[in-house]
Amino acid sequence: MTLSEPTAQALAEIGIDPQYVDELAQRALAEDLGGPRGVDVTTVATFDAEQMVTAEVVARAAGIIVGLPIAAAVFDVASGGRCSFTAHVAEASAVLRGDVLATIVGPARAVLTAERTALNLLCRTSGVATHAFLWAQELVGTGATVLDTRKTTPGLRRLEKYAVRAGGGGNKRMGLYDVAMIKDNHKRAAGSITAAYKKIQDAFPDIITQVEVTNVDEALEAVKAGATFLLCDNMTTDQLTEVVAAVREAEDKAHPVELEATGNLTLERAKEVAATGVNYLSVGGLTHSSPIVDIALDIRD
């Protein structure tokens, strides 16, 4: 691993595997340095090999800043550990336009080679966290939590799901391996919700199985089959209210059913949907449609 001890420790403290980030940074930098030369041709031509610089990472917009240790890792990899990265704000801090987020001191060539890759990741994770924060704030006092989905950027799922958590949201399943989810194609293949649920429990008895439902009848069938987590897909507020009431009446009170509203949810509807009694609102847009937080790197000397 090429990360410095402080960077590796900072990543571990936020629950991100340092080895994963190290490998991600190497792959991302390789995209910029591919080809026979393998260097930043502009920077190599204009900066001496041993020239040192001090640079500041500056917010160009307000937002929740998440991913500073990830950015630090990119500078570590690009410089072979010769860059120092000093954060000036805590992870998941709210910042304003113009705030200085971090200072980097290191070889000019390494700093400028790493700049765009580091900023791409930092802007992305901060954007996801800021979006999650808006949803979490909208749901304060409702008893409901906003969740992400698997609609993540390939290769960046761990970072994007971390950003959702840092912004105040929750994570749904990490992948296809940790939670079973019965959707329409699975229902058709098995013949019914009941049959699909039984097949999964027979094959993987220790796995949590969630069921997507579109109406009261499907919800009650799922509860009768043994499901304790239902995804209420693309329902109106009235439909959600009806499903929640029916499930609460039918559920085993010792094992309450958790209900999640999903599909075409908007921030404007968040409180209204939460008021139906669902436990969660899942929002794919947290990871597939969050705008970035604009962040720049400025050389100071």
Sum up the structure in keywords:
301 residues, alpha/beta, Aldehyde Oxidoreductase, domain 3, TIM Barrel, 2 domains, six-stranded parallel beta sheet, four-stranded antiparallel beta sheet, 12 helices, 45% helix
What does this structure look like?
The chain is α/β, with parallel strands linked by helices and 301 residues long. The chain has twelve helices and twelve strands. The chain has two domains: 5-128 and 291-299, Aldehyde Oxidoreductase, domain 3, CATH 3.90.1170.20; 138-288, TIM Barrel. It has helices at 5-13, 18-32, 41-46, 68-79, 108-138, 157-166, 184-190, 193-203, 216-225, 237-250, 270-274, 285-288; strands spanning 52-59, 63-65, 84-87, 93-95, 100-107, 145-147, 179-182, 208-213, 229-233, 258-262, 280-282, 295-299. A six-stranded parallel β-sheet has the order 6-11-10-9-8-7. Helix 2 packs across helix 4, helix 4 runs antiparallel to helix 5 and helix 7 crosses helix 8. The mean pLDDT is 97.
Largest sheet: 6 strands, parallel
The number of helical segments is: 12
Our measurement of the CA-to-CA distance between the termini, rounded to an integer number of angstroms, reads: 30 Å
For CATH, the homologous superfamily of the largest domain is named as: Aldolase class I
If you compute it from the alpha carbons, what radius of gyration comes out, rounded to the nearest whole angstrom? 23 Å
User: What is the mean pLDDT?
Assistant: 97
Q: State the secondary-structure class.
A: alpha/beta
* Low-confidence blocks of residues: none
